[in-house]
Amino acid sequence: MPAPLIAPSILSADFARLADEAAAVAGSDWLHVDVMDAHFVPNLTLGLPVVESLLKATDIPLDCHLMIEDPDRWAPPYAEAGAHNVTVHAEAARDPRKLAKDLHAAGALAGLSIKPKTPLDDWIEVLADYDTLLVMSVEPGFGGQSFMPEVLDKVRTARRLVDTGHLTVLVEIDGGISADTVEQAAEAGVDCFVAGSAVYGADDPARAVAALREQAAA
Ligand code: DX5
Ligand code: ZN
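A: This is the predicted complex of the input protein with D-xylitol-5-phosphate.
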């Protein structure tokens, strides 16, 4: 197994000090940026202008998680801007295959996300077109919610599909990841761990990232 990736979510950071908050987790593999449009999810966060500024403010690769309607139209500009990975929701995408191609053409990795109640089965066919599969372990919209262990079955299935199909898809998990839950997620086969409140709620965010990485690798 390659070393686990840790992606702190700036949803739990201070939005008025994003450059400093990114610097506070400098050793992270990816910086997770939650874009919410108040339609796909009942919350509104930030959009492309903030991502463009963040790209100038940090060297950490940005992992943009778009919880928005009509990602076929709105996601490619995040890739063009320079985001490392652009994740769209399977429930919102009209043509996920074409969208993955568009994101690749714009120079980013392409991610596909499924909400806790969305079955993986419907998306197995398109998985090979994507670089990451983000399994939501809370209902998308807010940080600080409790981890839903029932999604781990989907993680195990995804792990098996990726390994047996020799796919280059990273399995990512998002929601409620902390010192209490990271090990069960790692055991189920997660490669990349998003953590918001567990990192930015800690006294030392960098230390929290390092601790999660150690636990995930154990
Ligand atoms: C929720 C977001 C998550 C959120 C996770 O919709 O997608 O990325 O920041 O926050 P925690 O780790 O606090 O559950
Ligand atoms: Zn997220």
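The mean pLDDT is 97. The chain has one domain: 5-217.
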